[in-house]
Write a structure and sequence with these properties.
2 domains; alpha/beta; VC0802-like; binds S-adenosylmethionine; Rossmann fold; single chain; 10 helices
């Protein structure tokens, strides 16, 4: 089956990376058929309900029907056969499409062609045909809309225990997905703070282990997890001591202190990260992934002494703070 992912455009590479990480984590065999700005077309046996549950940085998953340059669009639309039932056409402009035809004209053209065989229903159609204008026109039939409102509702300020140190839930979910964790596997966040990453891991069915050096963070994290009906094994620990409390884990997703707003408890930040990487290399199972937010190249280099670096995405957290979302494999 061929699927068209409409990516969110919140970052140039991270939404694509998240889709591929989820597909790999779930073990679906797949092949990339086409890519463009905001577009990823995959041939694979995908479970869309599971992907919908996991993804944070995609907007829709459609059944891909064709891609066309402006010159071939009309002909391709004439060849298109859609299932019986009412339909509507909803076009969208997300990429570098700079041709004469705009979304309204494309909706009208495709609508008229399909309207020769099927009846239009703009309010409650059986079939939604979605031409997306990027470098070309990519046309899909809607399968699934990714519900993204929940991420906003889980923002740090809406949780019972608040601290500004927490990532936006969409970014926390993307980090969890990059760790390739699967349902019922053990996900560790050893700098868990208020629990932002653990919450996102819990919502996709991971078994959670969280630790932090600060007891008030562990208490607050517990309150936040309970607020969302999520359970976790939580304990207070310096990063160096977590092996005393827990065995090997299937994945690690974590956002260590930046040495600025968040406390390193007076430790030199490089020293803390060096200790952390050593512990991660011992506690992570073979062939599994560490997804970690790092300040800069120096820290990425440090990680490479213990792991195989697979992916790096610089992400703007806010106006004056950029961090690298990194994926390491053991
Ligand atoms: C950037 S915050 C983590 C934020 C977290 N992801 C959240 O959603 O709130 C880093 C956390 O590392 C903890 N920390 C600092 N030094 C530590 C150490 N040596 N061992 C374990 N945790 C430490 C801090 O208490 C802080 O909660």
């Amino acid at each position: 089956m061929h699927y068209l992912f409409e990516l969110s455009g919140e970052h140039p590479d991270l939404p694509r990376a998240e889709v591929l990480a989820c597909i790999e984590a779930e073990g679906y065999p797949y092949k990339i058929l086409e890519e463009d700005e905001g577009i990823l077309i995959i041939d694979g046996a995908l479970d869309l309900d599971r992907l919908k549950e996991r993804l944070a940085l995609s907007r829709y998953i459609d059944k891909w029907v064709f891609s066309a340059s402006p010159a071939k669009l009309k002909k391709k639309a004439q060849e298109l056969k859609i299932p019986n039932g009412t339909f509507c056409v909803r076009a969208k402009h997300i990429g570098t499409w700079q041709r004469d035809l705009n979304t309204i004209e494309i909706e009208r053209m495709v609508g008229e062609i399909l309207g020769e065989k099927n009846k239009v229903d703009l309010n409650d159609p059986d079939i939604e045909v979605r031409p997306i204008l990027s470098g070309k026109c990519y046309v899909g039939i809607k399968c699934t809309k990714i519900e993204r409102g929940g991420f906003e509702e889980r923002r740090a300020q809406h949780r019972p225990f608040f601290s500004p140190i927490s990532l936006h839930p969409r970014l926390a979910r993307a980090l969890v997905n990059l760790s390739r964790i699967r349902k019922n596997e053990q996900l560790l966040d050893p700098f868990c703070g208020t629990g932002g990453i653990l919450i996102e891991g819990g919502l996709i069915g991971a078994k959670l282990i969280g630790s932090d050096i600060a007891q008030h963070m562990i208490d607050g994290c517990k309150t936040n997890l309970e607020h969302f009906g999520i359970s976790a094994e939580l304990f207070k620990s310096d990063i160096g001591d977590i092996l005393k409390n827990t065995k090997e884990v299937d994945a690690i997703a974590t956002d260590p202190p930046y040495g600025r707003a968040t406390s390193t408890h007076k430790e030199e930040i490089k020293e803390l990260y060096a200790r952390a990487f050593e512990v991660f290399s011992k506690i992570l199972k073979e062939d599994r992934y560490l997804a970690i937010v790092l300040p800069d190249k120096e820290f990425i280099k440090m990680g490479k002494e213990f792991f195989d670096l697979r992916e790096v995405y610089p992400v703007r957290i806010h106006r004056s703070l950029t961090r690298n979302f990194c994926v390491f494999k053991k």
